[in-house]
């Protein structure tokens, strides 16, 4: 880190958190730590609660067509029959949660919502991770002016609050689609992953097994790909878990601001909450409560697991 | 290294805190209250303050430079037009002119002005003042100013020097008689004289505050002191100020108003953009009336004892069909689309309270409405049959719909699109939805470039004239409908619009409406949706206008 | 030293020129644009043409760019499309509203966060601690706009305690001196206005405070736990110092250092939260301005100015920090 040229306060804050995480997860390095951490995780009730929530969420998302009673975009005559703009039918036979504002089966939309939410969250996290890891790896492995340039760039991006950066990106794209939302949320995470990976790789450069490999004459590319990258990934996975929660919250916030996915056919919890939930809150509050609860639970699940993993990997706790 | 970074961080914190402190302290010092000293304000048995929640910021207060309802709302309270609409209707009655007449050619309009009317600055309203306004509009200089006179360009065709200009001259025959001469007849008159944009302003004040000065600045315009600080009309209220930090426009009772003097002493128009918040403020009692309640809230509010006032529907929502697509050039395909849409269900499930299915492009209160047009009742079989006859099975259409917008005729475009797309898909038409932000490409793509196959759009009428509805949409070739081949339609509409005799005019327009439905079908009319107002129980005398032209001088607040 | 300043100044100018150019060309490449935003449904093709001419969009792009640069250099960002007033007026009016809200939120977050975090740490592992942790986790996981909505619905609609929106009661006729309504009321002795403004602040401030509060609680708790583990506390304990003395003199003081840093560093996150909070409560600050100038109708002049101003503030603050740092720390000067 260059002494001069720290960027803004927030960037520093985020950077410090990233560095802490890097330090904790890569200092000790090695397989034993991970195995150790795994054992500790299994004994940790917090981690288990998180894991169970996530597992449940994944099962619903993957098997949505089997779990859901109906097609999420189909309008049902028995629901539209009594539907008006100021009254939305509640539970009836075959529709346990009643109708949504367009006469579609709300229960099915909630269930398929898991799938769409997973899709947005995973893609946003993964794209952020991919670009971040590539940038971070280049910075860490190549070094020199490229390192300086990449770190400058991440500094700038870290300085902007994530939601504001996402809003700016959607505005610059002039219109929002599901992809602008995903990319906006993803871009916010690129610098975090880049910093994380770079830090972790730098820490390893001086570690015993890398020094040993270098002494044995292993090519630089192989050292990076076979030794350094895999070892850095633990930290990245922990961060990805935490990022997922932020991603679905940011997507919901964008929907609320009117800058989210414009296709209301898509059953995604953030969209359901930010658009219909808020608009029809007084007509049928469940339209807001259920997606909100779903988001809170899933975000909580990922946060719990992510934080437990971080703690478990912390060498300080190995006593 | 670590320690020094820590220091830097702490330093940053200190600087941030310092900047905030400096801002706060620097702003302090001596300050005086400039609050009105009248202590008993708002407590008087009569009078009081009427607070009305509008939905958006006005642009400025010079009538001619505006074209949106939120600007017109305060303007209407401060100014009058030559001809007015009878409260609660789209019918005409005398305004600043007690009566008006036209010669048989429809080119010469004579206005008999009301006597003794004074502008807020004390100058008299006479024929010379009226003509000064007409001449001002016609002779307006500069692209900047002209480009903001949207209603003028539309109704009067153009400015001095333009071959399309309709206006010729205005003469003050005597102080009480103004004679306006046009170069040709236009169906828009006399209705257009009642447009708020053509309100009569004080020539003295306009001169004093440089009203014509509109300057381009960056990507927008700066207006004169007349438009921003000294709007001067003859209206029931005078300008009291616009507090932009709180979004409050204050208007005061004009004690010298020539008509029914305002019952309240003060009128505040409060800008609250979010419909949900408007409703909540109404419940909290901090505003006494709100415009455009969310359709979903009407029933609840009525149940709680608030007065939901429906404006008679004077608008239209339609589904545009773009004939640039060769498949849509085939009338059978367009008819198939009309049959495929379950409009009754659309109105029932998504229409705001009081909405009705539209079978033509104007509400039934407008001259020339034809009760016997061809109706396209929902008929899926017929739609499929027509499609296969036309060889258009497996049709895929790009359906453009706007986002980031809510219009009285289209409270929630995304939902409307979803319902329509669903219906079309049931008929075997594949719909490819293309959402575009209202100001970020929708209007451009649809009206300028005609990129769509289908789109939803609508219109709120300005005055009671079929030309203002049908003429606007289909009177000339438009990229929106890709209808350059429909010369028959343009001619018929042009003829109807040019007919001076009222009975003949009515017949001509009725035939246009019949042909539009049966022969031309350039779009499918969907619904007429009355926008509502909601007031607290103690608000009396607010008359909802189909043109959203409410005047607040008749409003009283009972205990 | 002089060289550092010079280099940074050059850097500043270069960045600004690049950014200005980028913003200019980018915004012009977007569909719709100011012409669309300025015209309603009623515009005829002729008016559209007039407007294009009036705004100079028919001129060569370089002429337009030159005029834009000239304006920006003189601090003129044009007029807002929505309200027609100069952009700088719009921005400077929105600024105090957001600061007022943010300060109130920070006061709540600190006032509650530090004691709660400390208590949680003192009762580590017990019910109270666990409850605090769960609440903070939910605080981080809940979409704050929804929390704001719930609070608003419950406390302004079901139980009429607080006003639902805005910064002051309509018709209060408060005198605007600094734009900080609470402060203005005190300065002009319109104490009813101050009370009213404070009353309007409560719910938005609580909503905005949620996330910083959760973070401050967690950091206080963690850092108090760290300190309690330190040798010198154990030593003090062993020496038989009274508990309260230990707490006051050692634990709190040492534990608060990282907390104070965190608080200072929450500014950016607060601004992001303000965008959502202000929308929920119709609070006329920068957050509302940002959303309004995008989704409320593409107010390009405002958008342009906001982007450039953010960049300038960002670069200048960093320059100042680095320079003052160089003055204070001799080691940097040597570098």
Question: How is this structure best described in words?
Answer:
Chain A has one domain (49-317): MetI-like (MetI-like fold). The model of chain A is unreliable at 1-10 (pLDDT under 50). Chain A is built from 13 helices and no strands. Chain A has helices spanning 9-27, 30-43, 45-62, 64-67, 77-80, 106-142, 144-159, 162-172, 178-205, 208-215, 220-256, 269-279, 286-313. Chain B is of the alpha+beta class and 559 residues long. In chain B, 33% of the residues lie in helices and 21% in strands. Chain B has 18 helices and 23 strands. Chain B has a 7-stranded mixed sheet with strand order 10-11-12-1-13-21-14, sandwiched between helices. In chain B, strands 16-20-15-19-17-18 form a 6-stranded mixed sheet. Residues 1-14, 19-29 and 37-45 of chain B have low confidence and may be disordered. Chain C has 335 residues and is an all-alpha fold. Chain C folds into 2 domains: 2-73, no CATH class; 88-334, Orthogonal Bundle (MetI-like fold). The chains are: A mainly alpha (319), B alpha+beta (559), C mainly alpha (335).
Alpha plus pi helix count of chain B: 18
Q: Regions of chain B with pLDDT < 50 over 5+ consecutive residues?
A: 1-14, 19-29, 37-45
Contiguous uncertain segments of 5+ residues of chain A: 1-10
How far do the termini of chain B sit from each other?
72 Å
Beta-sheet strand percentage of chain B? 15-25%
Helix content of chain B: 25-40%
CATH architectural designation of chain A = Orthogonal Bundle
